[in-house]
Amino acid sequence: MAFLDHPVRKTGKKPYPLESPLMPQVPRNNYLHFLEEKQRLQLKKFLIHRMFLVAKIPAHVGKKDISDYYEQVFQSILKHHLGENVTGLLLIYPTSILHILESSDGTLYRILLDYVAHKQDKEEFVIQKMRIIVVSHNVTSRLFMQWHVSVVKVPVTYLDDVTQSQSLQEVVTEFLIQTHKLGLHLLKTIKVGTKGPGDNLYQLVPELLLPEHTIQYLCGAEEFLKPAAFLKMYNKPLHVTLDSEIVWPAPTRF
For 181, left (φ over 0), alpha (ψ -120 to 50), or beta? Predict the structure, then answer.
């Protein structure tokens, strides 16, 4: 039996290739998802660090002197570190300050650098005997939405000075617990864009304020680094090359 061959017509259209089940699928995101992802990347442009500082101030120094100094520092740094705003809390006691700062490591570094430069240029700088108590790295979220300044007009009084009976570790633990509680309180009660707690914290939440003698005790504790020593350690290389490692042939270690 013979089969008849019929000519096959050629057409200009090519058959559509079958979609392979192994071919990766490109997700089709909507515009809302794009905006959310853009905002997420902007918020994670830099890691947030939280630094706790204490220092002494002369009795005649007022709120404006200290707040103006820090505001000028923040504005100057912001010109070089766009978007890396500083949040935190500055408590001004009669003869000491407690300062909590939140920002990138570069911004915190420049804040300390400016303080050290002023200390070298001026013998009687408004902020004295500063100590770095704790630096919390890569915190998941900010505890403060703005940078607040509050004056503790009257000292918080207690029955006794706990720094005389507690160890340094116990004092620091209490220091961190109280400051964290105060930060949470401000986070819940202060709306974004408002002026902040003002100078009546000692009337609203006196139980959350540390006594000034605790701040002064920490200012005198040699266990905590001064800004100059901290910056020196910060700039020190992690990997030190020994003299024996640059000779040829390299020595063999067993």
Answer: alpha
